[in-house]
Amino acid sequence: MEPIKTEIVVVGAGPGGYAAAFYAADKRKKVILVEQEKRLGGVCLNRGCIPSKALLHATRMIEEAKESVNRGITFGPPQINLEKLREWKESILQKLAGGINQLAQKRGVQILHGRGHFEDSQTLRVETQEGQLFIKYDHAIVAVGSKSAMPKAFDLGNPRIMTSREALELEEIPQELLIVGGGYIGMELGTVYAALGSKVVVVEALDSILTGADPDLVRPVVNYARKAFKEVRLKTKVLKMATSGKQIKVTFDDGQGEVKEELFDRVLVSVGRVPNCADLGLANTKVELDEKGFIRTNEKQQTSDPHIYAIGDVAGGVLLAHKATKEARIAVEVLTGEESAFDQIVIPAVVFTDPEVAWCGLTEAEAKAKNISVEVVKFPWAASGRALTFDRTDGLTKLIIEPESERILGVGIVGHGAGELIGEGVVAVEMGATARDLAESVHPHPTLSETLMEAAEVFYGHATHTFVRKKSE
Ligand code: FAD
User: Fold this and answer.
1) Ligand 1 centroid vs 323 CA: distance in angstroms?
2) Any ligand 1 atom below 6 A from CB of 353
3) Which among 49, 58, 50, 4 has a CA at the least distance from the CA of 31?
4) Of 14, 155, 268, 471, whose CB count within 10 A is highest?
5) Strands in 167-245 per DSSP E
6) Does position 321 have pLDDT exceeding 90, yes or no?
7) What SS3 state is found at 346?
8) Which residue, by CA, sits nearest to atom 26 of ligand 1?
9) Options 57, 307, 322, 445, the catalytic residue
10) Residue 193 lies in a domain
11) Is-above-0.85 flag for pTM?
12) CATH label of the domain that carries residue 77
């Protein structure tokens, strides 16, 4: 059979791959998008960002109903119909995936469902349900993503030991749920299951959950978890697991030399992600991998093979959907001859716990570690009228400012809806805005966005709703 010829083939249709295919088609390139699964959208749409946020929203309602007692409105205990909840979540994924299909069609992107395998630097073999076919291309963009890491000691083949993929399926609400790993995936799913009624224990080997975020931003999440979860155990390692009837026997090292065993109904392992590089045929190309198995790229998303680019999770760095989408743009721009590179680009991070944590640019901890002189200003949400109207004063907005230039180098927010608010921080840091720019921009009242403006006013010692004298005075 004659090979199909194309200018660009994109392997993997997650937020990196479909964004790359669409952008290349918008630039009038002939594009084929290869995806091994029936539904487009990758991990993000099918078993990551979207289903987790849908469940977090649904279960947040349970907590809000409980809290509304304080406002004189009382609801009865929730009746949870797991099947209905799963159907609702599924309907969102279907709508979104349908939208991606339609957009691909409108742009003339050809979609091939099958598993891609590189035969050489310019040939991709695709195993489809109808058989094999070959694609000859000028350039390939590899966007095959990542999957949950499952250490051998936990991999018993027991379905009660879950990754985020199974946990999002919501097969049941376990009574006793152990979450191994206090990163954002573990903490978000812990929030979902705790609201549904599970007794959640989170164990984290390090001395803090949500490492990467500044400790003052993490604190309100720890406070919430202490109330909503059964326990958060830091500096604790899970050594092994074994099947014990309908439960899982877990052996822990509590960090003080004591080894303990405990039984759980289910375990969620969320200890990191590994790239999907195996069986991709990369050895038949010049593509090189780094020591962790991610594809090595330069700031133009070029691999060591001049015909192959890599983007998204498989290219390492921060494993987030919007980073994948940005890299898609860079790869397409570079291979269509534009000047483009991943240079000093601000990638925000959001943890959708309760409350949410979001940050971008330089963190206070990074500034300290790198000895960068900064001034940190904070506006506590207890002083925000809007935060009081939702009973959510457990928030904080802070700016990391370069003292001489008054430039905003970083923004950190913890609180209800922090994920929505950080967008303004991204624009400020990306555009090199100064504290004065933020302080002098009129923000609508009453909104949480005012906390960004007031934090900037704190820098000048004249925030209306909090009293802080400028240090130099
Ligand atoms: P992926 O989304 O992993 O897509 C890769 C695609 O390639 C898949 O569809 C796969 O089937 C396909 N593929 C693999 N191998 C082949 C092959 N050989 N041939 C053909 N196709 C192949 N990120 C955020 O930014 N915000 C969030 O809130 C967020 N929440 C998350 C929650 C969870 C539970 C998880 C697991 C992840 C979350 N992420 C979140 C991370 C986000 O999902 C990933 O960073 C993002 O999906 C990476 O996009 P990608 O395009 O690189 O790869």
Assistant:
1) 11
2) no
3) 4
4) 14
5) 176-180, 199-203, 231-233, 237-244
6) yes
7) coil
8) 49
9) 445
10) yes
11) yes
12) 3.50.50.60
